């Protein structure tokens, strides 16, 4: 079967993208993921946060309000910073995104249809198609993604930017929660073994 046309998805939070200070310790007593996030230098925290939302102002604001008492407070601060994005901030954040993709084992026809829809969407709106699919199980995501991009193609530019901003906020929350999870040692297994951070030493 011929290879289907696909663009690379947005880079995950890989160790090569993260400051050494954020890569964790092999000592599970180092503390929770949130405690480790709170303890990062401002520069390291902002570098991690830029992989959750590509707005430098958003990352600076979320980092500056540390320490957070719990993950809920962190996510609330992230939401507040997202709501306050200027149009320039939103443009910067959207420029850092790549359009939402399906899993590689999705039906070939769905992958082709989505690639065509992405191209049409990006020509019209000049930014990636951003959507949070957290509320949908994996088996429904192909249909949900295709339905959403086709529906949103009918929007005016300003309306779609507003919707994209809210979807970006939701995606950033998911990524930020994942950061704290990955920074946490679970059952004595260091965070470095979850595949997010490179081994230290």
From the structure above, extract its key features:
single chain, 201 residues, mainly alpha, UraD-like, 2 domains, 8 helices, 0% strand, globular, disordered N terminus, disordered C terminus
Would you write up a description of this structure?
The protein folds into two domains: 18-93 and 166-185, Oxo-4-hydroxy-4-carboxy-5-ureidoimidazoline decarboxylase (UraD-like, Orthogonal Bundle), CATH 1.10.3330.10; 98-164, no CATH class. The protein is built from eight helices and no strands. It has helices spanning 33-39, 42-49, 56-64, 71-83, 87-95, 108-125, 138-152, 157-182. The chain is globular.
Question: Would you spell out the secondary-structure blueprint of this structure?
Answer:
Elements: H1 33-39, H2 42-49, H3 56-64, H4 71-83, H5 87-95, H6 108-125, H7 138-152, H8 157-182
Task: Estimate the global geometry from the Cα principal axes.
Answer: globular
Count of DSSP H/I helices:
8
Overall mean pLDDT stands at: 80
What CATH architecture of the largest domain do you see?
A: Orthogonal Bundle
Residue fraction in strands: under 5%
Number of domains: 2
- What is the percent of helical residues? 40-55%
What would you report as the Rg, rounded to the nearest angstrom? 18 Å
CATH topology of the largest domain: UraD-like
Instruction: Tell me the name of the CATH class of the largest domain.
Output: Mainly Alpha
Q: How would you describe the oligomerization state of the chains in this entry?
A: single chain
Number of strands: 0
Main beta-sheet annotation: none
- The low-pLDDT segments are 1-31, 186-201
Distance between the termini: 43 Å
Q: Label the structural class.
A: mainly alpha
